[in-house]
Structure formats: structure tokens, C-alpha cells
Amino acid sequence: MYHVSEFKSCIEADQVRVKDEVKTLRKYLAEDAIICVGENIPTLDDALEAQIATFGDTKLLWKKRKDTLSQLLGNSEAWGNVYSIQKISDLDQEK
Fold this sequence. Notes:
Blueprint (H helix, E strand, L loop, with lengths): L1 H12 L7 H7 L3 H6 L7 H12 L2 H16 L11 H10 L1
């Protein structure tokens, strides 16, 4: 993966100590990604493998995002019609 090799190159270029590599990675992660890389992971390779295992399947990630969006929007068929009562009602609830 491109980002993995790029991050490893940055770690080498910045001469980060081996014992601080995982801590440095965690500094740049947020939300689910930081949960995936716990403080107990010993090496950078293990941490990156955990990231790939969790976030490497783009189809699964997109499905999760799409399902979440569908839940938030409710009846998505109504959104095709600009003046749909359902759409207007959904938008009013979001405010």
C-alpha cells in the first residue's frame, strides 16, 4: 500500500527511534484508527498490519458509510424529488 511505504519512509527520514515509532503513528491517527492501534502493539509493522486489516477493504468501508448515511436520511427514494414532503421533513429534523 502506498501510504504504508510513504509513512515508513518518513519515519526513516525523521530518524524516529524504534521504540517511538508506534507512538509517532498514533499521534497522527484519530477516531477508529487510533482504537485499532492500541498502545500495547509492539512494532510499527504490527501497527500498520492492524490498520490494513481493519481499513484495507474499501468496499466494506464504503458499505458501512452508505448504511450509516441511509439510516440518517431515512427514505432515500424521497430525496430524488426536490419538493418531496419526506425530504423537507428530514431536513427540518436535522436542524
